[in-house]
Amino acid sequence: MRAVWLREFGGPDTLVPGEAPDPRPGPGQVVIEVAVIGIPFVETQVRSGSAPVPLPPLPIIPGNGVGGTVVEAGPGADPALVGARVVTSLKGSGGYAERVAADTGGLIPVPPGLELADAVALLADGRTAMGVMRAAAVQPGEWVLVESAAGGVGSLLVQLAVNAGARVIAAASSPRKLDLAAGLGAEATVNYTEDGWGARVREAAGDAGVRVAFDGVGGAIGRTAFESLARGGRFLMFGAAGGSLTHATIAEVFWRGIVLLTGGQFYSSPADVKAMAEAALAEAAAGRLRPVIGQTFPLERAADAHAAIEARATLGKTLLTTTEAR
Prior knowledge:
The protein is α/β, with parallel strands linked by helices. Helices cover about 30% and strands about 25% of the residues.
């Protein structure tokens, strides 16, 4: 089968198309004929060797979130799964390929009427957005700041906050991205590449102040978002797309009464993580949540997809498809 290999850390051109053995299902596994593959930002960091997580031994086939059709059931797996449309995560690698073997316990059926591409776009970003939103306990009328508001997770958080009755301030890096966030319901927008954007956030929120800030960027942007919070606000850190986590001292968190929540506090168990993904797909199937798929690339152009993400030239979610690779 066709796949994309990473044999050394570096730039996008280290992602090289090649051949790989067809997978065989082990006990309790199925083989999925992959149609769509999701690319979270952290995969570009893993590829470059700069990820804020342990790096895998090389060589690997990258890729974690995939969607497709079950074509084979292994020992102990329900043969009725064959033919089902599913999405699943693969424990961090193996996804940039035409076929994958996956544990049945991680399979999520795609609801009727939901496009497979939408389901894959919601697999990782949807569970993140649902978990973060639940932890934030956003109340109607509260001002909420969403960083990277035109990204995969950010665009979902804008919608979820609006659906909860909040007033959203969307922060992003270009007029095109801010227009997208406004179209999703953001009441105010700010460009965080411009000096003084934190003051404009506080001006938009007025006397009520920003009560919740969703931080998936970190670094200087996350720090400005933290400083924009009103006393007693909630600051939720779920990513470091800017290269480092937001820095805040214990003293200033306590002095300002900030509720600081991080990744380990968004889910209670692995089963809860899966439940949040299932909830995101259900919201989309019901028409209450729409993943923004800004661009798709054929499998063999995974390097181009990574380059576009790193250049901040993408909107919403970036996907790979296997159609042109076969």
